């Protein structure tokens, strides 16, 4: 089957399409700092949204995979005037809806809604910043959890592969 054309509404975020891999750093006041590896895949089926899957794993000091960390999946939907809606689901019992804006190759997102199951850890808000810098996807994430306000949590630099 032939690859469908990218929906014209996705033009502002079409630079995300493909598979990205790289490494980053994480930490939070309630945990020890850590290094992680990551792969993100943005896809499409011709409709006006991107599919999104992210997987991370803990890295040791030599850069070897130790164990899986977080995974999330969802959809990125462009809205008029370069506004963006992102829906993310996590296997830890959290669902997030982000709203934000695309300015050239920079995307800024803030949670509009956070829903948690009874067994999920306390998490109340997130802020994400994505940008294309010298062909690499850079991102940073702040979260509000465990009674704390928005605080730096993770960031990474990913290179397009494949």
Main sheet: which strands, in order across?
1-2-3-4-5-6-7-8-9-10
Q: Using the coordinates shown, work out and report the CATH topology.
A: Lipocalin
CATH class: Mainly Beta
The CATH architecture term is: Beta Barrel
Estimate what percentage of residues fall within beta strands: over 45%
CATH superfamily: Calycin beta-barrel core domain
**Low-pLDDT windows of residues:** none
User: Sheet bearing the most strands, described?
Assistant: 10 strands, antiparallel, barrel
Q: SSE order in H/E notation?
A: EEEEEEEEEE
Query: Roughly how many Å apart are the termini?
Result: 19 Å
What would you report as the Rg, rounded to the nearest angstrom? 16 Å
Q: How many DSSP H or I helices?
A: 0
Average pLDDT rating: 97
Residues in helix, %: under 10%
Structural class: mainly beta
Count of the separate structural domains: 1
Shape: globular
Would you count the extended β strands for me?
Answer: 10
TL;DR of this structure?
This protein is mainly β. The protein has no helices and 10 strands.
Explain what the structure shows.
The chain has no helices and ten strands. By secondary structure, the protein is mainly beta. It has a single domain (8-161), classed as Lipocalin (Beta Barrel), CATH 2.40.128.20. It has a ten-stranded antiparallel β-barrel with strand order 1-2-3-4-5-6-7-8-9-10. A hairpin with a 2-residue loop joins strand 8 and strand 9. It is globular, with a radius of gyration of 16 Å. The two termini are 19 Å apart. A motif (GXWXGXG) lies at residues 18-24. This is Peroxynitrite isomerase.
């Amino acid at each position: 089957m032939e690859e469908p054309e990218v929906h014209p509404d996705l033009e502002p975020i079409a630079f995300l399409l493909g598979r990205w891999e790289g490494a980053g750093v994480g930490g939070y006041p309630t945990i020890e700092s850590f290094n992680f590896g990551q792969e993100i895949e943005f896809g499409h089926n011709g409709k006006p949204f991107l599919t999104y899957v992210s997987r991370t794993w803990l890295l040791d000091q030599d850069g070897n995979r130790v164990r899986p960390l977080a995974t999330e999946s969802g959809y990125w939907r462009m809205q008029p005037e370069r506004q963006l809606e992102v829906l993310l689901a996590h296997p830890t019992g959290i669902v997030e809806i982000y709203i934000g804006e695309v300015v050239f190759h920079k995307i800024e997102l803030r949670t509009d809604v956070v829903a948690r199951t009874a067994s999920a850890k306390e998490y109340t808000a997130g802020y994400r910043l994505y940008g294309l810098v010298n062909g690499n996807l850079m991102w940073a994430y702040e979260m509000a959890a465990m009674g704390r306000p928005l605080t730096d949590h993770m960031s990474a630099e990913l290179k397009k592969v494949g």
